[in-house]
Amino acid sequence: MTPTAQSRKMQGSLAYNKLATAAFYGLGALVLLLIVWLLLTILGKGLPGLTLDFLTKVPEDIDPGGGIGPVLFNSFYILFLSLVVSIPIGVGAGIYMAEYAPENKLTEVLRICVESLSSVPSIVFGMLGLAIFAEYFQIGLTILGGAVSLAFLNLPMLARVTEEAVRAVPHDVKNASYALGMTRFQCIRTVVLPIALQGIITGICLVAGRAFGESAVILLTAGLSTSGEMWDFNLFAPGETLAVHLWYVQSEAIVEDAASIAQRSAAVLVVVVLLINLLFRIPLWINNRKLKR
Amino acid sequence: MPDKSGSLAKPADGRFGRYVRARFADRLFKYYFLFSILALCFVLGLVIFFIGKTALLTFAHISLADFFLSFDWTPENESFGAAGIIVNTLSLTALTLAMAVPVAVGMAVLIAEIAPKWLRNMMRPVLDLLVGIPSIVYGYLGLTVLIPVLRRMSGENLGDGLLAAALVLALMVLPTICRISDEAISMVPKKYREAAYALGSTRLQVTMRVVIPAAGRGIVAAVIMGMTRAIGETMAVVMVIGNTAQLATTLFTPASVLTSNIVMQISNVEFDTTWNYALHMMALLLLAISFLLILLIRYLGRKGSDQT
Fold it and tell me: Do A61 and A135 reside in the same domain of the chain?
């Protein structure tokens, strides 16, 4: 190979390199623009028409001007109930996998179970809820059924985030606490959990955000209607949530202002999910910065 | 039990009671944590039992061949051929991945290899944002924004179909694939890169010939993870695919996939009908596919850790 040919090849490589770098940046810019445009579309269309009235009023079947009060309430109510059911078990399972599980075949099987459960499509959890609550217990489509089915969906994800957070706790602090004569549970309660708490709470926020926007499960287990009243805490009332309401308005509603209701509902949905994801982390974030100094 | 032994021990030594209590709590919570993980497995058992039990009733009424090989799904006439719907599911997933994977892996390379630190720290949370948006909102945007555009561009009357669904799904699985690939690429040891640079490679050459092959298993796992999400997604798909039980022969044929077909029909059927059993069979099929993909990811992960 002559020197000139070699340098030409090298120049080619360098040119390709520059071109590819530019292309990667271009791709990144496009995707970022797409995301920004997406958020602006949802929020820009929906937020301007948003009033307190809309957030608290009862939906109308025929006349325009209905609100989303009861469905928004149901969303939070079902989310709360599902977390009450799933957090103790999910976090407990995560702690078991991180702290207690011995290295053997049984643990391997348990791990496959958790992973399989987390891969189950949400619609299948909906069908399970339908089979258990509507068919087996014969209570129809209720808030209770929706909340428990949603809890099933949350479980594997909670277990995973807890396990990761607990595993990230340094061994030194655990060893130090054992050296003081603590039992395993004392060590978990007083040393491991306080350190892992930040990770666990972040994980819970992610799970809550996902559960808040979940629609397939709720559609099958809590139904397409509400009891028509605000602040109805009855567990056996039908429990349409905001996400399901968006689907209903978009596909079946006959009110004149359906399009506008859908726009505003979508905006509310996205804002609440973002708040759940971001807002709850701010105190932790501040705390973290304080600790670092 | 702990109170009794605690009070018994008190006269002799106050600390003995505390010790017993600590031991008791330790034992108690150990069983509680074990119970939690078993409860999780129990839920998995419930899923398989309830879906499987009903699903298998299908074949008391129609033959296996009728379900898996017939393309005719008209439940009103008692014909439950799911082949068309199954094929649609597979082609929708393939189309989604064909669009999402190049972009997602490209983004992962940009984030992990090329971008400066500030850009990296900005892009990761922005991608997480995309994961947080509810699927119903993606479906809603697809229906109100994407479909009118597709209608104008293609000249079709409807615009619903595989292409619209695949575009929506591609956007949804993009962050999943990107973040896991990003992790896999970041895990490639620094010495590999340094060795390649020392031989005079450009960054493109290092990325293409060293980093991506070394992160290959992780990237494949990321793609499979995206696949499970795409196959199981329901509400976003149901809003844009057209919901007609037929084989999608063009990109704009209104069609339906396993998930969308289930969610549109299950609320309207009686429990003790072949129709309902067949819908459960479809759910069982979804479950089987997801489990298979998860086992595949585990297998890839194990092989990867054996090698290093």
Answer: yes
Q: Does A210 touch chain B (CB under 8 A)?
A: yes
**pLDDT tens by residue, B182-208:** 999 999 999 999 999 999 889 999 999
- Report yes or no: B199 at the A interface, CB cutoff 8 Å: no
**Amino acid identity for residue A37 in this structure:** W
Contact with chain A for residue B296, Cβ under 8 A: no
> What is the residue range of A5's domain?
1-46
Interhelix angle A143-167/A69-95, rounded to 10 degrees, is 40
Question: What share of chain B in percent tops pLDDT 90?
Answer: 53
- Probe site for chain A from B44, B113, B167 (most A CB atoms < 10 A): B44
CB A189 within 8 A of CB A117: no
Question: Are B51 and A128 an interchain contact pair (Cβ–Cβ within 8 Å)?
Answer: yes
* Coil/strand/helix, residue A103: coil
Query: Count of domains in chain A?
Result: 2
Contact B82, B282 (CB under 8 A): yes
- Give the separation between CA A163 and CA A90, rounded to whole angstroms: 10
Compute the count of residue pairs across chains A and B with CB atoms less than 8 Å apart. Answer: 237
For tokens 């919901």, what's the residue?
Answer: B243
Global confidence as pTM: 0.88
Q: Å from B239 to nearest chain A CA?
A: 8
Question: Does A260 lie in the same domain as A140?
Answer: yes
Model ipTM value: 0.88
Tens-place pLDDT, residues B26-74: 999 999 999 999 999 999 999 999 999 999 988 888 888 888 888 888 8
Same domain, A160 and A250: yes
| Residue B161: exposure state from Cβ atoms within 10 A (0-12, 13-18, ≥19) | buried
